[in-house]
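Fold this sequence, please.
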Amino acid sequence: MVTNSNRPYLFVSYSRADYEFVQRLIGDLQRNNITVWVDREKLKPGTRNWEKAIKTALGESHTVLMVASPDSAESDYVADEIEYAELEGCAVLPIWASGEQWHRCVPLGRGKMQYIDMRGELYSSKLSELLGQITVTTNKEFVVPATKTTEVPPSADAPITLLLKEPRNPYKGLKAFTTADAGDFFGRQDLVVTLVERLKEFPQFLAVVGTSGAGKSSVVMAGLMPTLQRNVIAGSANWVYLPHVKPSSRPLEQLADALRSQLKDTSIATILDDLNATDGLGLYRVARNIPRLDSARVVLFIDQFEEIFTQTSDPAAREHFIGLIMSAVKEPNSILTVIITLRADFSDRPMQYNDFGKLMKDHSEPILPITVAGLREVIEEPAKLPDVMLELEPGLASELVYETRGQSGGLPLLQFTLDQLFQMRDGRKLTLAAYQDIGGLNGALREHAEQTFGGLSEEGKQAARQLFMRLIEPGATEQDTTRRRATISEFTTINPEQDRLSRIVIDTFVNARLLTAEDGSLEVSHEALIREWVRLGDWLREYRKDIELQQELSVATQSWLERGKPEDRLYRGETLDEVLTWMHRNTPSQDEMSFIAVSRAARELQIKKEEERRNRELELARAAADNAHRAETAERDRAVRFQRAARLAAVLATVAVVGVIAAAIGIVNATQQTTNAIATGAAVEVQVTLDALEREAVSTSVSGLGQIPATVIPTLSVDQRYATATRIAALYEMPTTTPPAKFDGAKMVLVPAGCFLMGNAINSNERPVYPVCFDIPYWIDMYEVTNVEYQKFLAEGGYVDKQWWTAEGWRWREDNNKTEPRVYDGFTADRQPRVGVTWYESYAYCKWRGARLPTEAEWEYAARGPDSREYPWGSDWVQDYSVNTYNSHGKSAEVGSKPKGVSWVGAYDMAGNVWEWVQTQYDQTDYPYPYQADDGRNIEQGSNNRVSRGGAWFVDASYLRSAYRSWDFPADGGSGYGLRCARSLE
């Protein structure tokens, strides 16, 4: 209870537009010895926390004068000040200063307040009435608005007992209230009464729908269930209450477990057989077999019902589960009461099922935001319990209520904050100082999670990311994101050291009450953590694809195990390749690793059989091959004759332009069959565009031909120009390879100017095929960057020098306290490529060396050449020309170990060994093909995904094509990632 002697001020709440009126009012009040607090006088320039100063002033004021006008009605400051004043128990006196209609001069919902009209000429006559009202108010005691009180049973020795015991913590943090917590549950009594009335109307079914964090689970378990057990509905004290169910990925098994709690003599298998009956009446029948008193009902509570849509991946299983509920509820004389909770943002999902959607529509009760009075109960009433007896520092409850009100998901944040305040209590007092230290309501959870994460080792932080990625169900959008329960077995790998680290990380977050471990499973304690922890949100956005792949892998593995490990359930093709790439950034569980290994072995066996078949076919086709060889020789002879004809045409070109035209047309006519084959052949994509021809990209360097005059080209028809360009390309001789040069100790090869067809028709992100030209030669590393070369960068301090990094890369390095890239056992030999490097680290190394990362087009041209080969060595796959999954023995090889796989410019290992980062951003929306060098895709700054090229030691031929594009996050780097640098021609 607060008296006027402790509250010296009269607070004036107003809009800036009414300041002239307020100045007049302040003068009259002060002349009548009334102490006034007004922000323009009390808040000095430079006040750091003006909001805190205003809250303090409101807490010390006996009365608040609300100056009402059209401007104040629109002021958020006035509305907040009045709301906070009421929380602090201040009297509020409205004064009408200007405006034509009262209800348009006050915040929404305050139109019925009694006011003093002091507009215009009425001011002087109403001043005395105002002073009288203030006098009446200051002679009263101010009482904080009444809330529910808790009666303490009288006991003579109670005070002594309480003083000897530590107070019990009545606040639940991120955990939901359970039936056992009913004595600590306050603030929702009106809602509980409403839920009881709904069950009286229709006892078979009730859906409680609300936003995440609205308290759905708590109000059912700690409010509704204990109330029903007190017989508020006739006979409800004798009802059978099953353990609550969460659907997860196996809803029928969860349901069977709950039913078996009341059917001890019936096996789980028998119950599952009943539930799987094709007539859909299994739940109805099993429920009727539960021992109970006559007319007693069986209550089934299904919590987090949205999991049937987010975690149950099999549509048939989902439909069957919903059908069981429908049949049990609608069956005549059903004794089953089904209560569910559902997140509001999933309330459209049940509408996909006609009957169930109608049931939801007719028998749902929404959870509306808790009232201010209810919030005060939540905070204060548990503190008064006899085994608690906590004291809240004055103003703390009001601060908590003020910060929580209006937040749809604020209750878990409030409970978490109260739990933190209890941990930091001063004796039995919860203090404002502790509240500020933990970051207030909106910062407490975020700061606690970040501090917990920050206490881990570097390896522990990596393990924490992988841990949380298994505990999130990303959904189609961020709004669909939910937590996911995972079995502890998902965190058991083939690596004992990794398992030990995982246990440490799990225990750390469980002890911090951020994760909940029970019944052999693990889950995020509340979805509020997903919303509030910025780092977790960033992980979700950055690794969404990895999360989806992991969860698909987990489901596939479980299905494979359950069905006896059949071969037709194994991964194959592109799916297997994606998982093999994924596992170099993530850690599969023991079961998942077994599934991947068997899938890979099955594919290798299939490839071996296919190779044997091919060898047999080749043996049978040897004679045909000899004939083909003879035909090829004859064709070469004809090509020589064509070349001579072309040279003759060039000589004639020096005599007369017309002669050159005729010669070019003659070449076309003489080689029409070959031209058509080139134009239509799917295997050889060799074309030269008109742009390339007009820039003389090919016409200037035909051996012995000289330079075709630029005036010739425009005189040809379109068809003639195209065909002529095609034949010139066919006759084009490769330029002499420039010897490698050394730059800062690294060998580089020169890539000549020229054109090629970039892309391929195989994959959607490689289309359309499009010509790309380079007018200026450039250098590219002869080999992938080795451990010796990268170690020099580390030893000379380049890694810790900010000038070499992008802004995002340096921030990433500092946030993760990185001193060098990750090191992998078996990948540290001097001449092996440096692996484990992220894009950020690759960029910094190349810049330190005076070079840069190649663009995607530069890399592909250096690999494919002007004839756009499929692989660096040609268009036919030869397994032993690269380091790949068939011959790598589980790791990369020394650079240059496959000399037959060298590219046309003398660059080694451009297929296989390690993926190579390039400069280019990967974004199929903003930067689709055809490739455009100047559209922003090659920008250095930013945290967008980046392209990697060339394949790695663990992939097969389909990923080693020179046109194949992969991508990853710039902060990723596993044992398959390396780099090579490029350099512009000086």
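DSSP finds 36 helices and 27 strands in the chain. The first helix runs from residue 19 to 31.
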